[in-house]
Amino acid sequence: MLREALLNRFKDDCTLVEHRFGDGTSKLIPHWKHAHPPVRDVNKQVRESFSPLERVALAVTVRVGSAGFFIIIAVWTIVWLLYNVLAPARLRFDPGPAFVLWLFISNMLQILLMPLIMVGQNLLNRHAEVRADADFEVNQKAEQEVEAILLHLEHQAAAIEHQGELTLQILRRLENQAAS
Fold first, then answer.
1. Confidence check: pLDDT of 39 > 80
2. How confident is the model at residue 150 (pLDDT cuts 50, 70, 90)?
3. Which pLDDT does position 41 carry in this prediction?
4. Residue 166 CA, distance from chain mean position
5. What is the pLDDT of residue 81?
6. What CA–CA distance (Å, rounded) separates 72 from 109?
7. How far from 163 is each of 5, 23, 88, 142, CA to CA, in Å?
């Protein structure tokens, strides 16, 4: 029953091969074709698909999204603000409370980095989608291989059962000869 269900489901992926037993009998055994394409390296595929500008956007996204960049910005802000509050009035270059120069530089960084980060995130999403597709392909191949293994195991069980039947026939013949 399981054999027929698997054969019907995978009729295009299996061929029937005749297997001859030692006693001269034969049986058709399904053989898995293994005709699926090899696993592809999606990381390499995606990296090669990026343009130079996309590579820059991705590098910026990775570095700006790091803890190191956060620490640099936090230290820069603290030093800037403390210096312009605590330094002697004649040495302050961006007096508070407005801190106009600091706000201008911060806004310029945000304006320039925001589109680059969005482009980088789109690239990372594209990479994630390609990886998900590749994972799905691998899972499908694994499922086919597992089903092929189950099919082979079923036929091995059938062959063992056939050998057991032959062994019983031999034992009966020996018992009959001993009884005669």
1. no
2. confident
3. 84
4. 48
5. 94
6. 13
7. 25, 9, 100, 31
What percentage of the chain carries pLDDT values higher than 90? Answer: 31
Q: What's phi and psi for 50, nearest 5 deg?
A: -75, 140
With both helix axes pointing from N to C terminus, report the angle between 52-64 and 100-179 in degrees, rounded to the nearest 10: 100
Tokens linked to 157? 């069980």
Cis peptide before 97, with omega less than 30 degrees from 0? yes
- Could you give the residue ranges of the DSSP H alpha helices within the chain? 2-9, 42-49, 52-64, 67-86, 100-179
Place of tokens 């990026």: 50
Give CA–CA dist 40/106, Å, rounded: 43
Structure tokens that stand for 64 in this block: 């700006």
pTM: 0.56
CA atoms within 13 A on the CB side of 113: 14
Instruction: Report the pLDDT value the prediction gives residue 3, as an integer from 0 to 100.
Output: 60
Instruction: Name the phi and psi angles at 160, rounded to 5.
Output: -65, -40
SS3 label, residue 50: coil
- Residue that is written with structure tokens 């991705």 in the block: 58
